[in-house]
Write a structure and sequence with these properties.
5-stranded parallel β-sheet, 4-stranded antiparallel β-sheet, Rossmann fold, single chain, Arc Repressor Mutant, subunit A, alpha/beta, 242 residues
Length: 242
């Protein structure tokens, strides 16, 4: 007797209770296992614990916005299908979402049958990529990255730098990936906390500054006059190099 296939897991991140309930009901009727949440902080927690096969993601969320949730996920997983479902359906919003690594984007109000079709298509494509070993677009940084006299090996989580050979922590690797993927773009402390740590808005912490001290100690010739990891007054930090 053949075992019943395990249903695909879908995480619905939506703060409108009526929409969330309707999505959960219809996805469940299609045979999917569904979990829901209404904020970005818990979305990242559930993603890490439950490991869904697909995420349906609203943009305007309390705590951490949907695009920050997306960027945080893409630091670790380029394959997971993410479908944005948002009232912000302008071309600029869609371009921004796709630039951050979303797989599909549907503007509200939406047609339910079209939504279910796109969910099925994303899951089918993801299964095919997994079975055939297809490379995902814009994968997380792996291998060796060099800047100045420094060298980061993401495959071993080590760095060769002015401090010698350093074994990097998981959070240091995550933060370096975030800076490198946004090279030349200023990142606010709020964005760094949201994307890098999953902290919601209004969090008061010196975490970012403490990590910046460590990165400068590793990679800067003169940590007090940084060349690569620079402070931007009233903005945050910027990573860049020639």
């Amino acid at each position: 007797m053949n075992a019943k296939p395990t249903p695909k897991r879908i995480l619905v991140v939506e703060d409108d209770a009526h929409i969330a309930e309707g999505l959960a009901l219809n996805l469940t009727l299609q045979g999917y296992a569904v979990r829901g949440t209404a904020d970005g902080v818990s979305a990242l927690r559930i993603w890490k614990e439950w490991r869904p096969d697909l995420i349906v993601l609203d943009v305007m969320l309390p705590g951490i916005d949907g695009l920050s949730v997306l960027q945080s996920i893409r630091l670790e997983d380029a394959r997971l299908p993410v479908l944005i479902l948002s009232a912000r359906g302008g071309s600029e919003d869609k371009v921004k979402g796709f630039s951050y690594g979303v797989d599909d984007y549907i503007a509200k109000p939406f047609d339910l049958d079209e939504f279910l079709m796109r969910v099925e298509r994303l899951l089918t494509r993801s299964a095919w990529q997994t079975e055939n070993g297809a490379a995902a677009a814009a994968p997380p940084l792996t291998g060796i990255y060099r800047f100045g006299p420094n060298q980061i090996d993401f495959s071993t989580a080590t760095a060769r730098c002015r401090a010698g050979v350093v074994t990097l922590t998981d959070q240091e690797v995550r933060l370096l990936r975030l800076f490198i993927s946004n090279r030349g773009k200023p990142l606010s402390r709020q964005a760094l906390l949201a994307i890098g740590w999953g902290y919601g808005g209004g969090t008061e912490t010196r975490t970012v500054d403490n990590f910046m001290v460590r990165l400068r100690r590793y990679f800067e010739i003169d940590p007090k006059q940084p060349k690569y990891f620079r402070s931007m007054r009233a903005v945050g930090y910027l990573f860049d190099h020639e």
